[in-house]
Amino acid sequence: QVQLVESGGGLVQPGGSLRLSCAASGSIFSIVAMGWYRQAPVKQRELVAAITSGGSTNYADSVKGRFTISRDNAKNTVYLQMNSLKPEDTAVYYCNARLYSDPNEWDDYWGQGTQVTVSS
């Protein structure tokens, strides 16, 4: 079993900042990549940012220059620093981990989601 536990969501004013954290635990052989997705009401879930075990990153165009993803491999934890937040960033943010629970099989795992609301 693998668990992803997220924290750090909340209510913030436009222009403010939040930091999300996600820790993976359980039966983990190795982690390929971790990332954050978000889903706003009546919209599809979309990739926000991802980072590989080697440190390569990928960002949605809408967050480039404002959000920074980072990772602590020793703690199996990924972070998302969100600056200059906009109302359109409001969504439920989900942590994702692509990992091997044994040497021969990988799978995608998801956190429970954390609400981020940007509003004055």
Number of helices: 0
What is the chain-wise order of helices and strands?
A: EEEEEEEEEEE
Rg from C-alpha positions? 14 Å
- Secondary structure category: mainly beta
Sheet having the most strands: 7 strands, mixed
Provide the β-strand percentage band.
over 45%
The coarse overall form would be elongated
Alpha carbon gap, first and last residue:
40 Å
Question: What does this protein structure show overall?
Answer:
By secondary structure, this protein is mostly beta strands. The protein has no helices and 11 strands. It has strands at residues 2-7, 10-12, 18-26, 30-39, 46-52, 57-59, 67-72, 77-82, 91-102, 105-110, 114-118. β9 and β10 (105-110) form a beta hairpin. It is elongated and about 45 Å long. It starts with a strand and ends with a strand.
